[in-house]
Amino acid sequence: MNSRERILAGINHKTPDKVPIDLGATPSSGISVVAYQNLIKYLDKSHLKTFAYDVIQEVAQPEMELLDHFNVDVIDIGRHFNTGENYWKEIEIIKGHKALYPHWLNTQRLADDSSIIYGASGEIIGRMPVGATFFDQTIFPYRDGYPDHYSNLANDMKRVIWGGVGFTPWDWADEKDFWKMLREKTIDLKQKTDKALLLGIGCNLFEWGTMVRRMDNFLMDLLADPPSVHAFLDALMESHMQSLEKTIEAVGDVVDIIKFGDDLGTTNGPFMSVEMYQEFFKPRHKQLCDYVKANSSAHTMLHCCGGVYELIPELIEAGFEILNPVQINAVNMEPERLKREFGKDIVFWGGGCDTKSILNRATPQQVKDHVKHNLEIFSVDGGYVFNTVHNIMPDVPPENIVAMFDAVNEFNT
């Protein structure tokens, strides 16, 4: 099998010739700028450049040479938009780690060594404290209450760092003929690689509520003010469906996976009851998934952090075929339980290595043992793509990253 065939076999719950591998196809399955630079130095590949394509999380876009080195099978089509040298500029946001950032990024390091990001309006929409490696959100447009109407929703969302600092290809969305460009570049990329193609479109629901209202307020709204929540989500869905329809028209017959996002869980379980998910989010998630399935050949992925065991049956019914990042260190998210109860109905994309306590703290041999144990469980009868539990963080030693991928390749041999 080639990489695309391997990924598609796994998604279709067929046993591929090897366990498919992901690194960097999404901003939640990648590697931090710091860890990436440590890794390429360790591998004697310092000639590779560090492209920071997710500025907020400071996540690198691995170069193809590194992806091939680790036998990675899937890529984000956004990388095909930012190949020109004039797209990038070299700056140092994390002290001691210069990297290439999108030319449009408006950031400033302050005298105390913290950093800020300015949005299109000139407001400070993000702040990275001293010693941190991640930008925090600073503006919550609806913190003091919902607006009377949502005619300014698009601009309000851009005041949020997650809407104001996009990653490719969506930072090109205001360009003339963007949708034509998206199709042409996706087709061109498909002809040049046999790796599966993934496009993250977002369309977050719960998360947008927490980002415009702030987490505490929005969680209370779900109980105390359902009509306002529904009105907000209806306005949000109108915007999401417009974007989704244009995306599917452009690349629905070319891209292999469409990734949505909504973090519905904490380490200790879901943010909400099953009934609350059924009322507010499941019908809208189903609308998104139904549209993809009715109008494209793409498969549906949901990035959803946390312990969401209780919600997985609902996510399956909503139409999500793939779940990422499979947070096996959360309550009720043990690999054995997940594979036994849901392995025939959903693809687990992730969960291959615990980034919270194993990849960053264990010995290389312990990492290998941990990875092989998870592979023995998740890989049975397909329905699995190997990836870490979310991004590889700055504190991960490069020798542990190598040990992790060595374990996968040994398992695949």
In short, what is this structure?
The chain has 413 residues and is α/β, with parallel strands linked by helices. It has helices spanning 3-11, 33-42, 64-69, 153-158, 161-164, 178-192, 206-213, 215-224, 226-251, 274-280, 282-295, 312-318, 335-342, 364-378, 398-412; strands spanning 31-32, 52-54, 59-60, 74-76, 88-94, 97-102, 107-109, 115-118, 124-128, 136-137, 196-202, 257-261, 265-266, 269-270, 299-303, 322-324, 347-349, 384-385.
List the helices and strands and how they pair.
Blueprint: H1 3-11, E1 31-32, H2 33-42, E2 52-54, E3 59-60, H3 64-69, E4 74-76, E5 88-94, E6 97-102, E7 107-109, E8 115-118, E9 124-128, E10 136-137, H4 153-158, H5 161-164, H6 178-192, E11 196-202, H7 206-213, H8 215-224, H9 226-251, E12 257-261, E13 265-266, E14 269-270, H10 274-280, H11 282-295, E15 299-303, H12 312-318, E16 322-324, H13 335-342, E17 347-349, H14 364-378, E18 384-385, H15 398-412
Parallel strand pairs: 4-11, 11-12, 12-15, 15-16, 16-17, 17-18
Antiparallel strand pairs: 1-3, 2-3, 5-6, 7-8, 8-9, 9-10, 13-14
